[in-house]
Amino acid sequence: MGLFSTGKHAYWIQHTHFFHADVYECSSCGREFDNRYKKCPNCGAEMDRGDLDWVDEFAMFDAFFED
Ligand SMILES: [Zn+2]
Description:
The protein contains one helix and five strands, in the order βββββα. It has one helix spanning 49-66, and strands at 9-10, 12-15, 23-26, 32-33, 46-47. Strands 2-3-4 form a three-stranded antiparallel sheet, with no helix packed on it. The site of zinc ion has 9 residues, from loops.
């Protein structure tokens, strides 16, 4: 588990554009990329976004057993 991760954490700020693909801005260094990488390729910050998928999955699992 990454409770005591040594790396810094950040998240992607999505910028939606009408005439070209969305870009994702690193909340740590402000660089923009066309993909939501697990880590920022520029500053190396770990992105917390991925954890949300895991939580959602776990909630579904939990509901399955309550039924
Ligand atoms: Zn960055």
